[in-house]
Amino acid sequence: MKHLLTAAMPRDEAIALLDLAEDMHQIQDREVKKLPALRGRTVVNLFFEDSTRTRSSFEIAGKWLSADVINVSGKGSSVSKGESLRDTGLTIAAMGVDGVVVRSGASGAPALLADWIGRPVVNAGDGTHEHPTQALLDAFALRRRIHGDAARGKGLDGVRIAIVGDIAHSRVARSNALLLPALGAEVTLVGPAAFLPVAAADGTRLGVRAETDLDLVLDEQPDALMLLRVQLERQGGHVAPSPAEYITGWSLTDERLARVPEATLLHPGPMNRGLEISSRAADSDRSTILEQVTAGVSVRMAVLYSLLASDHPSSDNGGAR
Amino acid sequence: MTTLLTGAAVLGGAPRDLAIDGGVLVDPATIDPATTDRDGVEVVDASGLIALPGLVDLHTHLRQPGGEQAETIASGVRAAAVGGYTCVFAMANTNPVADTPAVVEQVHRLGLDAGLATVRPIGAVTVGLAGERLADMTMLARSAARVTVFSDDGKCVADAELMRRALEHAASLGAVVAQHAQDPALTRGSVMHESPLAAELGLTGWPSVAEASIVARDAMLAEATGARLHVCHVSTRETVEVVRAAKARGIAITAEVTPHHLLLTEELVRSYDGRFKVNPPLRAERDVQALREALADGTIDIVATDHAPHAPEAKQTAFADAAFGMVGLETALGVVQQAMVETGLLDWAGVARVMSTAPAAIGREPGYDAPLEIGSPAHVVLIDPAARAVVETGHLKGRSANSPFLGVELPGRVLHVWHGGRRTVAAGEVVA
Predict the structure, then answer these.
(1) Which chain B residues are closer than 8 Å to A198 by Cβ?
(2) Which of A129, A168, A202 lies nearest to residue B201, judging by beta carbons?
(3) CA neighbours within 13 Å on the CB side: how many for B225?
(4) Model pTM score
(5) Does residue B200 sit at the A interface (CB-CB below 8 Å)?
(6) Distance CA B374, CA B25 (A)
(7) Considering B152, B306, B347, B369, which one is annotated as catalytic?
(8) Where in B79-232 does DSSP place strands (E)?
(9) Does residue B208 surpass a pLDDT of 90?
(10) pLDDT (tens digit per residue) in A38-88
(11) Residue B206 confidence (pLDDT)
(12) What percentage of residues in chain A have a pLDDT greater than 90?
């Protein structure tokens, strides 16, 4: 692995990353949370878009691996003065950094930077395209829920997962729709028609099923439900239903929660309680929401280690992008 | 200066000689077959080469005035000349917009100064391309620039009543309205073809129906007004079907396709390389096939380049932020050879029709109706169809290099061009 730009990866590569994340996960129980693996390495968190959760998670992951971590945000940087994406990337690369973590509102920006700067690039979310480390941490948290301490080496074979909400505009949904089937899971995307991408309609590209009726999907007793943050205010009146309409059709209400008593619940956060998910659902013992946050650090440690550790076998072999 | 071209395959047919004198084609029999350069006659051995009439591009962006960092009229006609063009129609979306006699006459004058090819300014349909009120079309038509084509290209005349009035006005002037068919409400934020790939890449899709629905509406408006409608850069199978139905109904509709839509598909966008961002977007394989068939059967009348130069900084950025458009003048003929001739869909006479005589007829440009016949203006291109070369930036003679064909091997080479009897290209290079 030369970069982490997409969650589309072979099963064995995904399982190797999740297993490495299991190793990293152990550090959370230690009094001194520090590994020397990336000592002397410099990682830049280049965030063109606001983010607290993801940026902090990458920063902690880098620091726990002993890397020097620099945060650069779009606001107040040369980017806001009109410097192009390419020039910003080349400038940062010229400073001798070892890896760049990129968050951008533009789909494909991390892929372009990877081509331009010749340094390992991690996609920390690009536009409405992908958020691969989020998908990895979702898979990690779900795998732990299902297999517990015996998770190493295992996939998510036969696990049925419904992803509910604004699929079309969700990079989290897109990355999960690529990664989870590779791990053996069966994924169903659920949402109002305007929230389902064209790809889902014919299922050829993402390899997943799409449904508009959440209640029908719940009747099938999925093993897990992933509720996405719905941003109705960003959709405009032509596309999105009203909050009341959304709750009627697609919210995980208390009533719907009671109909799937065994299902594990995931949410990438931050949540709109009362819109896509009820408080009771969010706070239930079937919710993995905080476990996902914890898993985020472990997964990002695994990714940074894989890309940047000089003694890691995949760090310089030019393999999958 | 008299010029004798010996043994050219005229329109791809049997070899014969062509002679140029006084800016027109003359009977080669009037020239002694034993003549040589030393006799004051330029003799060009054209054996193995194909002679075509000078190409006419109904859809070129020359960017001047206002966008000179990307292209000027002088640089644009150099690109045109090496591509085999002797006449280009310059789109109106300049800065200021070509919506006044002053601007179209400036473009016309700069074209005359540049030489190499005829530059015919296109007039805007609406003031400032704003889509709110009609430009002074009569003044543009009667200006020294003699505007015969009106277009808001880059933007769609979305308001149906404005389009109706524009068509009525154009009909009274003997002009044509060239529509950029794109329903703005269906394409908000769109940057590539709407498809499973767009969903995979996280890029906002441009649905095919946004083009076809406008063409269907405009065809009915053209029928109602008795006007001539020209559809710019048809890109989808659905639009082809609408144009076919409109023609069958007897509506005065013509349509163009770009070289890039005849050869390239949306798959290239997978790279997120801004060079592949164009409006309308690169479509799916089924669309490419439909466009080729439509050009072959006459549903689509012409090839037009939509040559759209951009400075590097406008393209070397995130795909969603990159400017729309590709340069195309230099590579058009090679692309058409590959997509249409080498696939057996068009012969060279057909190429002459779709790249010269038909666009000249739509734009009412005289001198192209009897291609390569004695007495016609000497607009002549000699090409070597057997040559093949990888497109490199050195081949691009305009000011910008945003070509989707860089690094791609294309067939054919434009070797020599005469514009009204004047040599503009020799051995593939522009003659100063």
Answers:
(1) 194-196, 198-199, 205
(2) A129
(3) 27
(4) 0.92
(5) yes
(6) 5
(7) B306
(8) 85-90, 118-121, 149-150, 176-179, 192-193, 205-206, 228-231
(9) yes
(10) 999 999 999 998 888 999 999 999 999 999 999 998 765 556 555 678 888
(11) 96
(12) 75
Chains A, B: CB contacts within 8 A come to 77
> Is B113 considered catalytic here?
no
Residue B291 has pLDDT above 70, yes or no: yes
Mean pLDDT over each residue of chain A, to the nearest integer: 90
Residue A54: both structure tokens together: 């993801």
Q: Is the pLDDT of residue A201 over 60?
A: no
- A88: nearest CA in chain B? B317
C-alpha–C-alpha distance, residues A98 and A118, integer Å: 10
Spatial neighbors of A309 by CB under 8 A, at least 6 apart, are A37, A38, A65, A315
Task: Report the pLDDT value the prediction gives residue A194, as an integer from 0 to 100.
Answer: 84
**DSSP designation for B54:** P
Report chain A residues whose CB lies below 8 A from the CB of B196: 197-199, 202, 204-206
SS3 A226: strand
Residues 192-231 on A with a CB inside 8 Å of B are: 197-200, 202, 204-206
**ipTM of the shown complex:** 0.85
Residues A282 and A254 sit within 8 Å (Cβ to Cβ): no
Taking CB atoms and an 8 Å cutoff, what residues of chain A touch B203?
Answer: 107-108, 127-129
Position of tokens 């789909």? A107
Cis peptide before A270 (omega within 30 of 0): yes
Residues 6+ apart with CB under 8 A from B150: B92, B122, B123, B124, B125, B135, B137, B140, B166, B170, B175, B176, B177, B178
Q: Which amino acid is at B23?
A: G
| The pLDDT of residue A236 | 57
CA distance, residue A209 to nearest chain B CA (Å): 13
d(C-alpha A170, C-alpha B414), whole Å: 49
